[in-house]
Amino acid sequence: VFEKLLLVTPEVEAEQILMSPNSFIKLKTNRDRVASLSYRVLDGHDKVPIVKVDGRGFLHSGSLIGSSTIEVISQEPFGINQTIVVAVKVYPISYLRISMSPILHTQSKEALLAFPLGVTLTFTVHFHDNSGDTFHSHNCVLNFATNRDDFVQVGKGATNNTFVIRTVNVGLTLLKVWAAEHSGIADYVPLPVQHTIFPE
């Protein structure tokens, strides 16, 4: 009995890897450090390559858009070979979306109308193509700005697509998030801050 070969980064099962032009991603499988892995692009020799993959699993997209296919082969130490074939789509970014964690609710499971004073939140930016699919890899550096700096404090997060917000005063702040390399790709988020805990 042995484990079936799967990609764990990015997590794709029956779908495809979606990349923006001139980006890269490190492919990781559940058989890394257990089996000998090899990677290759399956496109024909007459086709201009859309992506390149090296022996360590670094998948790079070029400036061209289009689709390609890669093959991952796992050679197990007990003699079994496993192969997976994954589609790769290189496409331009159409828009970005912002999500927040943790999700805040009242005791009765209702959504809050404002952020509580004194809370620290993580905002994650997701990039999408024109059909709404989320990118696994992109080449964007995020920028952010607020219309005032006395109600919330904003800082970079642990990764390029995250930032941390701490609420410090009651009031309304407008947050703008944009990708400098892609003009017109931005989002604006209102950040209302209110007292949410009151004595009974």
Automatic annotation (TrEMBL):
InterPro entries: NUP210-like, NUP210_Ig15. One of its GO terms (cellular component) is nuclear pore. Signal peptide: none annotated. Pfam families: Ig_NUP210_14th (PF26183), Ig_NUP210_15th (PF22959). It comes from the Eukaryota. Residues 91-193 form the NUP210 Ig-like domain. This is PO210 protein.
